[in-house]
C-alpha cells in the first residue's frame, strides 16, 4: 500500500473512531438510564455492591483483551486488507459491502463460540462466572473472567483472519458488539410488541433474560449476541417465557457471597459442582 493511501486510510479510521466512539458512549449512557427508569425484572440484589463487582471484573477483562487479543487482531486485519486475504476480500463488493459482510460473519462465528462456551467443559468453567450473576442488567455485560477473554483471543484472531475483516470493519464490529451486549443484557422493559418485532433482527433483553435463566433448557437457547438470525437459523430461538417466571443465575450458586470478586475469580479453579442441581445437593 502506498504512503498516501496509508495516510488516507489512517485519517478515515481516525474519523470512524470518533464517530462510532461517540455513538457508543451516548448509546451506553442511554441504556443504563433507561433500564433504571423502566426495569423489566425485579432486582434480587439491591445496592451498589454487585455493580462494583461487575465493573471491577469488567476492568480486568478489558486489560486481558488489551494484552491478549488486541495485539493479534489489529495486525491480522491490516494484513487482510493489504494482502487481500480472507473470505470477504473475494466478494465482488465495494469496500463498505465487504465491511457489512464481515460484520455479519463475525457475529455468526461469535454465535458458534458462545455455544462452545456452554458445551465444552473447560470453556464453561470460565463462562460460568458470567452466568452466576443473580441479577441481569447492563453491568452483567461486563462481568467476565479475565482468563475467559485470554482463552477466546485465538478464536477471535481466527475469525478476523478467515473472514478477512479490514481494520475499519473490525472497529465497526467491536462497537456494534459492545452496544449490543449492553442492550440485550440490560434490564430494560420495552413495549412487548416492539420487542417482538425487534427480535426478528436483534438480540433483545427478553431474549437474553431467557438465556440467563436458572433452568437449563431455557439457558440452552438464545445464544445470539448481535443479530438474532442465528438462533432462528439453528432452531435455538425462544421468546415464550414470562420474565417474572425466570430465576436469573445458576442453581448451584444461589448465595450472593459466592458471586463476589474473590470467589468469582477462583471459581474456575475450584472443584466443580453439578451446576444445574440446587444448592441443597452440594456439600
UniProtKB/TrEMBL annotation:
Residues 101-236 form the Fatty acid hydroxylase domain. It is found in: Endomembrane system. GO terms for cellular component: endomembrane system; membrane. It holds the Pfam family FA_hydroxylase. Its main location: membrane. The chain crosses the membrane at residues 12-34. Keywords: Lipid metabolism, Membrane, Oxidoreductase, Transmembrane, Transmembrane helix. This is Fatty acid hydroxylase. It is a multi-pass membrane protein. It comes from the Bacteria. One of its GO terms (biological process) is lipid biosynthetic process. One of its GO terms (molecular function) is glyceryl-ether monooxygenase activity. It comes from Methylobacterium radiotolerans (strain ATCC 27329 / DSM 1819 / JCM 2831 / NBRC 15690 / NCIMB 10815 / 0-1).
Amino acid at each position: 500500500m502506498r504512503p498516501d493511501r496509508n495516510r488516507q486510510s489512517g485519517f478515515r479510521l481516525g474519523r470512524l473512531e470518533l464517530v462510532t466512539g461517540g455513538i457508543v458512549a451516548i448509546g451506553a449512557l442511554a441504556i443504563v438510564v433507561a433500564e433504571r427508569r423502566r426495569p423489566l425484572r425485579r432486582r434480587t440484589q439491591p445496592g451498589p455492591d454487585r455493580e462494583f463487582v461487575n465493573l471491577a471484573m469488567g476492568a480486568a477483562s478489558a486489560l486481558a483483551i488489551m494484552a491478549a487479543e488486541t495485539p493479534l487482531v489489529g495486525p491480522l486485519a491490516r494484513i487482510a486488507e493489504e494482502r487481500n486475504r480472507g473470505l470477504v476480500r473475494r466478494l465482488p463488493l465495494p469496500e463498505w459491502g465487504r465491511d457489512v459482510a464481515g460484520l455479519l460473519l463475525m457475529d455468526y462465528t461469535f454465535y458458534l463460540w458462545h455455544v462452545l462456551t456452554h458445551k465444552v467443559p473447560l470453556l464453561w468453567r470460565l463462562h460460568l462466572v458470567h452466568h452466576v450473576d443473580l441479577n441481569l442488567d447492563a453491568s452483567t455485560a461486563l462481568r467476565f473472567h479475565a482468563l475467559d477473554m485470554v482463552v477466546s483471543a485465538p478464536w477471535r484472531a481466527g475469525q478476523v483472519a478467515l473472514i478477512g475483516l479490514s481494520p475499519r470493519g473490525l472497529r465497526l464490529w467491536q462497537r456494534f458488539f459492545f452496544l449490543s451486549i449492553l442492550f440485550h443484557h440490560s434490564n430494560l422493559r420495552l413495549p412487548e410488541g416492539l420487542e417482538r418485532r425487534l427480535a426478528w433482527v436483534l438480540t433483545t433483553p427478553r431474549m437474553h433474560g431467557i438465556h440467563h435463566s436458572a433452568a437449563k433448557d431455557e439457558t440452552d437457547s438464545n445464544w445470539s449476541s448481535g443479530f438474532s438470525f442465528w438462533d432462528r437459523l439453528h432452531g435455538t430461538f425462544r421468546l415464550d417465557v414470562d420474565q417474572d417466571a425466570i430465576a436469573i443465575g445458576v442453581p448451584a450458586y444461589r448465595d450472593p457471597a459466592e458471586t463476589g470478586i474473590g470467589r468469582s475469580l477462583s471459581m474456575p479453579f475450584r472443584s466443580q459442582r453439578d451446576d444445574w442441581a440446587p444448592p441443597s445437593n452440594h456439600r
